[in-house]
TrEMBL record:
Record domain SusD-like N-terminal: where: 38-210
Matches recorded under Pfam families: SusD-like_3
Species name: Candidatus Ornithobacterium hominis
Coiled-coil segments on the chain, per record: none
SUPFAM superfamilies linked: TPR-like
The protein's name in its UniProt record: SusD-like N-terminal domain-containing protein
């Protein structure tokens, strides 16, 4: 893994985004505006997939940013002051890492838009492109809330940020398209289906976004739809979670795409490193099956720090996007209390719904929005100064 901060000169902003044709060398001659074979569009989707999974050379912090801002981490060491700024909610607009957390997400959106403009893309392929576009906008929403909405018809002119409600509505429409047009999750081929967007994955993200919007009834409907497919189940052993994963992004060691597990481990203690927060650990009883996801037995030899082992410590940890326990928790929040009991019976837990959600979803990039929904946080990252300079409407 690279431990050197890359001082990259980012030229341009959302108005000069990278083409999605640059990702794979075999794509260099592809023109998405012309007729392409199905396999050619799939190559464009691979390029999009790779950009969403690992937006830039510091992609691990693009994934972890909102979790760092939340309260589940206990910092062990800050090698970079930029990471400490995120943790302390004190990020200046000219921060280098901040630029990467904006421009490179829009580069992924640009790749999705290129696919959506292709006359050769079928409905399933467009559904996947819209799924990844929605997922990327959700990450931008988590960090900035109000952001410019750039779709496949964008004319490259200055554009103002949309309202929070409009951003969520845009995400919802993309996910609704994906739910209607993507293939179903194949329960007989879980290993493959969990690595690509499916109807069920779109419905699961819809449940999350409806909850953010405050529409718990709609959120519960989507959650119950996913539960009702009977294709997913809460694992008795949370470390063996294949049955739980609705969709994820596959880590890749050669590309160092999946380093967040390493940063959350004892191995990273001399670099930027995060252990689990004390008040999170206090939620875990001796009988809770999720205790296996934390290295309590090594606490004394690690200066009192307890680390999560939810992710692998190599540079190829998979990125969890959504799991079935979240659907149970969303349905329970909407009033279906039996869903909470079902989850707790498997986890051997008796926590409140709020604490159950915090523990179950810890280190899955949802805690920041939970804090905002409960009015415990209101911090928003500033727009990068370079993006503001390039787009005068970005205020």
């Amino acid at each position: 893994m690279k431990k050197v901060f890359l001082y990259i000169m980012i030229v341009g902003s959302v108005l000069s985004l990278n083409s999605c044709l640059e990702e794979i060398s075999s794509e260099a001659s592809l023109d998405a505006s012309s007729e392409l074979a199905e396999d050619d569009v799939n190559k464009l989707l691979v390029g999009l997939y790779r950009k969403v999974r690992h937006p830039n050379s510091n992609g691990y912090f693009a994934v972890m940013a909102t979790e760092i801002m939340a309260d589940n981490y206990k910092p062990v060491k800050f090698q970079w002051f930029q990471v400490q700024n995120i943790y302390e909610h004190n990020v200046p607009s000219n921060d280098l890492l901040l630029r990467n957390l904006y421009v490179d997400f829009y580069a992924g959106i640009d790749r999705a838009n290129t696919i959506l403009k292709s006359p050769s893309a079928n409905k399933d392929q467009k559904g996947k492109a819209k799924f990844y576009r929605a997922y990327t906008y959700l990450r931008l929403f988590d960090m900035y809330e109000r952001v410019p909405i750039i779709d496949e018809n964008y004319n490259r002119q200055p554009i103002a940020p949309s309202s929070k409600e409009d951003v969520l509505n845009f995400i919802i429409e993309d996910l609704k398209y994906g739910k209607e047009n993507m293939v179903e999750f194949d329960g007989k081929n879980v290993g493959l289906s969990s690595k690509v967007p499916t109807k069920e994955a779109a419905a699961a993200l819809l449940a999350r976004v409806y909850r953010l919007k405050g529409d718990l009834a709609a959120a519960a409907n989507e959650a119950e739809y996913v539960i009702g497919t009977n294709k997913f189940s809460i694992a008795q052993n949370p470390k063996e979670r294949d049955s739980e994963v609705i969709t994820m992004l596959k880590g890749n060691k050669a590309e160092e795409a999946g380093s967040w597990g390493w940063i959350m481990s004892y191995e990273a203690r001399t670099w930027n490193c995060f252990a689990a927060a004390d008040d999170l650990l206090n939620l875990i009883s001796d009988n809770d099956t999720r205790r296996a996801l934390f290295d309590f037995d090594k606490k004394d030899e690690r200066n009192g720090y307890v680390f999560s082992n939810k992710y692998k410590t190599q540079d190829n940890s998979d990125l969890l996007v959504v799991r079935i326990p979240e659907m149970y928790l969303i349905s329970a929040e909407a009033g279906n209390t039996n869903r909470l009991r079902e989850l707790q019976n498997i986890r051997n837990s008796t926590l409140s719904l709020e604490d159950e959600r915090r523990l179950e979803m810890s280190f899955e990039w949802t805690r920041w929005q939970d804090l905002k929904l409960s009015k415990k946080q209101d911090y928003v990252l500033p727009y990068p100064q370079q993006a503001v300079d390039s787009n005068p409407l970005l205020k």
